[in-house]
C-alpha cells in the first residue's frame, strides 16, 4: 500500500503533454523489445551481448521516437475513420 501512496503523491504532467509522453514511452518499450529480438536473431544466443543490444536499441530509439511524433496524428485519424466512437 505504501508504494501506491507514493505514486499518487507524484506530481503529474498537464494533459497537454500526452502527445509527447505517450510516444516517448511507446518508443522506448517497443524498440527495447524489437532490438533485443533482432539482435538475438542476427547474432544468436552465443554471440549476443548486452553492449551490442543496447547500441542497437539506442539507434532504434533515436529513429523511432521522432517517427512516432510524426506518424501518430495520422494513425489517430485513420483509426477515427475505421473505428466507431464509444
Automatic annotation (TrEMBL):
<feature type="transmembrane region" description="Helical">
    <location>
        <begin position="20"/>
        <end position="38"/>
    </location>
</feature>
<protein>
    <submittedName>
        <fullName>DUF2798 domain-containing protein</fullName>
    </submittedName>
</protein>
<keyword id="KW-1133">Transmembrane helix</keyword>
<dbReference type="Pfam" id="PF11391">
    <property type="entry name" value="DUF2798"/>
</dbReference>
<keyword id="KW-0472">Membrane</keyword>
<dbReference type="InterPro" id="IPR021529">
    <property type="entry name" value="DUF2798"/>
</dbReference>
<keyword id="KW-0812">Transmembrane</keyword>
<feature type="transmembrane region" description="Helical">
    <location>
        <begin position="50"/>
        <end position="72"/>
    </location>
</feature>
Amino acid at each position: 500500500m505504501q508504494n501506491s501512496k507514493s505514486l499518487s503523491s507524484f506530481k503529474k504532467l498537464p494533459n497537454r503533454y500526452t502527445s509527447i509522453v505517450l510516444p516517448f514511452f511507446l518508443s522506448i518499450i517497443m524498440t527495447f523489445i524489437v532490438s533485443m529480438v533482432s539482435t538475438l536473431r542476427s547474432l544468436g544466443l552465443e554471440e549476443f551481448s548486452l553492449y551490442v543490444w543496447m547500441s542497437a536499441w539506442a539507434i532504434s530509439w533515436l529513429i523511432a521516437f521522432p517517427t512516432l511524433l510524426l506518424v501518430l496524428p495520422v494513425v489517430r485519424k485513420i483509426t477515427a475513420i475505421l473505428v466507431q466512437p464509444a
